[in-house]
Amino acid sequence: MPTPTTAETRPAPGTSKDEIETPALLVNLDTMEANVREYVSFAEANDVRLRSHVKTHKNAELAKRQSEYGGDSGIVCQTLSEVEVMARNGIDDIYLSYMAVGRRKLERLVWLSEKLDRFATTVDGPGNVEPLQEAAAERGEDIDVILEVDVGLHRTGVAPGEPALETARFVREQPNLNFQGLLAYEAHVKSEAETQAEYETYCAEAMDRVQETVDLLESEGISVPEVKVGGTATSRYSGRHPVVTEINPGMYPFMDVGELEHRPFEVDRTDCAATVVSSVISTPSEDRAVVDAGSKTLSMDTSQLPVPRYRDDIEYVNASEEHGWLDTADVDGSLAVGDRIEFIVPHVCTTVNLHDMIIGVRDGRVEEFWPVQARGKVK
Ligand SMILES: Cc1ncc(COP(=O)(O)O)c(C=O)c1O
User: Helix or strand or coil: residue 124?
Assistant: First the structure.
């Protein structure tokens, strides 16, 4: 018997949510659309481009819609193979917010840059600038380049101020590279800020550092057409600063427990569109039930655990690969094998990457499917 394809095993449109085989990754379409509208309105009100990061869902259809909602704003990818999947599926304006390194990868990058209407990549120092220049020169192609500046996350990025100026000059000296501006991914604010006022202050401080760098570059005759900033939590604060031209949030359509915990003052369970529906497979004791959603279904790469979307009397306390342990001591009565429990996912980007398919649900019925086309595309 041939192995059934994902398309053959997915639930038919119109299927009740209660009949979807578990575990499954669902997205509540009304909630997702409300989240998207919120970020579109924010971008319009603050006159910034909303170029969504598609690393969260890895699906070209959703990416196309997000680009359209942003006024043909294009998309952002984190890996070159994500760019390839999106390009193959008709998206022609892509920013790669990551450094491509290695000969084969740079050949792929230059080829993509030739094919796409608009493409830019990221650098932060001579170590990734020089090989990019060489690869571009070999094919006679000009590549748009964004310089990443480290405004506090201390991941990648050159320090703001003089070091950024020096690196921008170095990029400008390369005959096949076009300096297009700065990336300032300010995600450190998520771990430092607790209140809304702190988000406002810390994001503004980070953007002031970017402004100083832009002023310095421009005073040296280097124009900075673009300033891109990051994520779901911070871009709605950073995006208010006049230096910012573009926001690149990724998780905002779906949300997750991380967003709930980091911003309890403005995110609640009703904002969380992505859930995993699971079934109780065993009730070994009065205070314990086990569901069919463990760490191969719900990624727990952060400190968060899954949170029940609709119940307060159950706690997800531990996971092995295919088992999720629930503390049911507070349940009035008891859970039974077969009971269905829906969880908000701890970290949505890595959870999506565990699934073949995202199932869109409206009013309790299956409406749409999105294959996770760039699943596993880490190269
Ligand atoms: C450079 C960059 N921009 C934007 C994002 C999107 O951020 P978020 O997932 O918080 O929406 C990420 C996420 O990792 C990122 O690395």
Answer: coil
